[in-house]
Amino acid sequence: MARRLEKEYSGQYCLERDSLRQGEKIISAPADLEIIFNLGCYLIMAVLLKPVTGENYYACAALSTDESQKHMVPSAGFALSGFAPLHGMTPTAVYSGDTVVGLMMHGRDKRDGRYWLSAFLIDKKHQRRGYGKKALDLLIRGLKDKGVEALYLSCTPDNASAWRLYKSLGFVRTGERANSDFVAKLDLTSHTALVPVH
């Protein structure tokens, strides 16, 4: 089983950590695997999306970005403060195993009727590990299952790394502006998941 999982996921979901013992490897699998497997020297860690509740609210509110990102990404506290929920957004926590590593706000905006990803951040301690791409892929697959036809977001022009991520998932600019940000759209009717569901 370990060999099958390694072959299946190591291409896109392999993460190396300096803290691991020599010869140890982490393979991060999609959230379909809702438990953590310990297979010899392979640790298969699930990435999950869970609702923000009283139990994880403070862990979500404590998430923060790097100082250089703060002018480009809304803080977790602001996202949870009531502005996004007021317009129909749902707060969702991103987990790696049992650790909160990120937060997203998404929903159908009451003002324009479109489905938006209004806020998305991965904590500065957990960035550059692939969590963002996997979390977005899970959200996209869930929205497709619910019959949502398109997902919109706005992105600050200065945030090149975020746009690379969104573009790699299939988002395209619409030509619209949201204040100083540009708007991008993902057509969910033709989108293919990064990792097939087993």
Characterize the structure shown:
The structure is a single chain. This protein is α+β, with helices and mostly antiparallel strands and 198 residues long. The chain has one domain: Aminopeptidase. Helices cover 25% and strands 33% of the residues. It contains 6 helices and 10 strands, in the order H-E-E-E-E-H-H-H-E-E-E-H-E-H-E-E. Strands 1, 2, 3, 4, 5, 6, 7, 8, 9 and 10 form a 10-stranded mixed beta sheet that branches. The longest helix is centred in the last third of the chain and has 15 residues. The radius of gyration is 17 Å and the shape is globular. The two termini are 14 Å apart. About 24% of the residues have low confidence.
- Report Rg: 17 Å
CATH level-two architecture:
3-Layer(aba) Sandwich
Uncertain regions spanning at least 5 consecutive residues: 5-44, 67-73
Mean pLDDT: 72
What do we call the CATH topology?
Answer: Aminopeptidase
Strand content: 25-35%
Q: What is the global morphology?
A: globular
What is the N-to-C succession of helices and strands? Answer: HEEEEHHHEEEHEHEE
What's the β-strand tally? 10
Instruction: Tell me the helix content.
Output: 25-40%
What is the number of helical segments per DSSP (H or I, 4+ residues)? 6
SS-derived structural category: alpha+beta
Main β-sheet: number of strands, strand sense, barrel status?
A: 10 strands, mixed
**Full CATH superfamily name:** Gcn5-related N-acetyltransferase (GNAT)
